[in-house]
Amino acid sequence: MLSVARRLVACAAVLAWSRGAAAQSTILHPSERPADSIELEPHLLATPFNPPGDGSGAGFGVGGRASFEVVRHGFVPSINDSVSVGVGIDFMRYQGSGVFSPGVCTRTATGPAGTGVCVEVSQRGGPSAYLFLPVTMQWNFWLTRQWSVFGEPGLSLYWFDYRALGASPVLFLGGRFHFTDRLTLTMRVGYPTFSIGVSLLF
Q: How far is CA 172 from the centre of its chain?
């Protein structure tokens, strides 16, 4: 009997939580969100991917993004969405480069007359630096007063070691946890970088 009672209490708690979560949802209530039009976001960067161009290996860096709302009611009038245009600047340092030294030898084999021959290196070259200038379209979905998510396709110019100029497509998926209507923790995964930062909404 006690076991049945515990199960009933657990089911009631789950139902109550589900109803509470549903009541807090804002995705089906267009414009039920902070009245802001500018987002400024300093962030830290990391990536396990090789960058575009001649760099290679994992990378770390810092950067910032500014996003400007251009469509208040988004592409789907029945849901709580918006569209912004984002511009940014990111500085990245990668482990390797195809331009400089051949890297560190990690495996050798015995060659003629007992000499050691390197058959594997840790990377394609020495460290490399990148400057990215991304421009994106940010499609936001406002799920609750505390959570919003977004997708960001776009294009980025980049300078490899501040000499070679190139361009690369970018694609990010991200989310924000809203501490207040004006301050959020913002996380982003995608290519060419991952980021975590703080957004100020105006």
A: 6
6-23: buried (b, 16+ CB within 10 Å) or exposed (e) per residue?
eeeeeeeeeeeeeeeeee
Query: Structural domains in the chain?
Result: 37-201 (2.40.160.20)
Q: Return all residues near 57 (Cβ < 8 A) that are at least 6 apart.
A: 50, 94, 95, 96, 123
The predicted model scores a pTM of 0.76
In DSSP terms, 88 is beta-bridged to 65
* Residue range 114-130: mean pLDDT, rounded: 76
Strand 194-201 vs strand 38-47: parallel, antiparallel, or unpaired? antiparallel
Phi, psi dihedral angles at 77 (to 5 degrees): -60, -25
Helix and strand totals (H; E) in the chain: 1, 10
Beta-bridge mates of residue 175: 149, 187
